[in-house]
Amino acid sequence: MSIGSPQFILHRIAGAASRFRKCERGATAIEFIFVAPIIIATVLATLQVAVIFVAQSYLDAMAEDAMRTVLTNQAYTLTQTQFKNTVCANLTALFSCSNLIVDLEAAPSSASDITAALPQFTSSGALKNPTNFNVGGQNTQMILTLMYQWPVISGPLGLSFSNMGNGTHLLISTEVFYKEPCLSSSGCTQQSG
């Protein structure tokens, strides 16, 4: 067999292929290249879900504090802006007061009217209808809804938690409660505003 013969070349190629099949030095790195995107996507998705749950928990706590303000008849003298500022006083570093949506109104008499009364959004995340601010009278069932458009980041492999079409996830916290009777000697009256 001479060096330039086709049989010699085929023999060398077969030998190199045989050595390549037996060599496992780079197998781990190649396997990691295939698995790494899945691991990274899973970690990022887990972090995103954790952050959303923490933000939802804080929003629920804020809604509970705002409900107490209305429940104990402290909101009668507040305008809508003052009430929102009172709610914003409990904001943490997670939220921006300008992105918080507050809706307060008496509960509708039927369940089908509840969804019609809540604020509606366009596909770009803008409000279609204005929010309500009605403190309600004594012995009234009330609905307080706090909403916040939480920014989310799309992850690898097309992962996205956006439900608003504008890169945000709408967090909603609703409190339904029955207002206490007013025991103030001066009476409880709502300020216009």
Question: What brief labels describe this structure?
Answer:
193 residues, 40% helix, three-stranded antiparallel β-sheet
Explain what you see.
- This protein has a domain at 54-178.
- The protein is 40% helix and 15% strand.
- It is built from four helices and three strands, in the order αααβαββ.
- α2 crosses α3 (80-88).
- The chain is rod-shaped and about 110 Å long.
- The model has no long low-confidence stretch (mean pLDDT 79).
Radius of gyration: 30 Å
Helix/sheet category: alpha+beta
Mean pLDDT comes to 79
> What are the secondary-structure elements, in order, as H or E?
HHHEHEE
Question: What is the molecular shape?
Answer: rod-shaped
Distance between the termini: 102 Å
How would a textbook summarize the main sheet? Answer: 3 strands, antiparallel
Helical content, roughly? 25-40%
Q: Order of strands side by side in the largest beta sheet?
A: 1-2-3
Uncertain residue segments: none
Q: Helical element count?
A: 4
- How many strand elements? 3
As a percent range, the share of strand residues is 15-25%
Fold blueprint:
Layout: H1 6-22, H2 27-71, H3 80-88, E1 100-106, H4 112-117, E2 141-151, E3 168-178
Helix pairs in contact: 2-3
Summarize the structure.
The chain has helices spanning 6-22, 27-71, 80-88, 112-117; strands at 100-106, 141-151, 168-178. With 193 residues, it is α+β, with helices and mostly antiparallel strands.
